[in-house]
Amino acid sequence: MMAAAGLAAMEHTVSLLPGVHALARKVADSLREIGYTISLPVQTNMIVLDLEKDGIPQAAFVNYAKRHGLLVFPSGRVVFHHQISNEAAFSLVAALRELMQDKKAGKQLEAHKVSGGYT
Predict the structure, then answer these.
(1) Quick count: other Cβ atoms within 10 Å of Cβ 35?
(2) Which sign does the torsion angle of CA 70, 44, 27, 40 carry?
């Protein structure tokens, strides 16, 4: 079973990774333009946002994403799967654009404690 899983990954998934990595970089660039701080260089399928530095409460991050049909972890770490669509990736950008606009407009953001996985 393990060998079959490895073979399937090699035959079907590995070739998709460069596209996933490019999509993550494109999304990170969009988020930078909106005003988010990216903590680490985006070299693979992962974006790490510095929510604390940007003054974004974890609860607001989770809930704005949820309103756009997305589930995220409260840490600000976003990981793209090889099956993610461009539509889903840019739904994240739309959700976080709305969040940053509301923050800049002085809207009260949800700031209750969030722990564990996504909610």
Answers:
(1) 14
(2) positive
| Amino acid making up residue 37 | T
Q: How many CB atoms lie within 10 A of CB 9?
A: 11
Q: Measured between alpha carbons, how far is 60 from 41 in angstroms, rounded to an integer?
A: 24
Q: Are strands 46-48 and 77-79 parallel, antiparallel or unpaired?
A: antiparallel
Model confidence band, residue 119 (pLDDT cutoffs 50, 70, 90): low
pTM of the model: 0.87
Residues 4-18: pLDDT tens digits? Answer: 888 888 888 888 889
Rounded distance between C-alpha atoms, residue 97 and residue 11, angstroms: 37
Cα–Cα distance, 31 to 94 (Å, whole number): 10
Query: Residue 85 class from Cβ within 10 Å (0-12 exposed, 13-18 middle, 19+ buried)?
Result: exposed
Instruction: Read off the tokens for 97.
Output: 């654009």
Q: Which two tokens stand for residue 114?
A: 């969030």
The kind and range of the H/E element at 8 are helix 2-8
pLDDT, one tens digit per residue, over 39-55 is 999 999 999 999 999 99
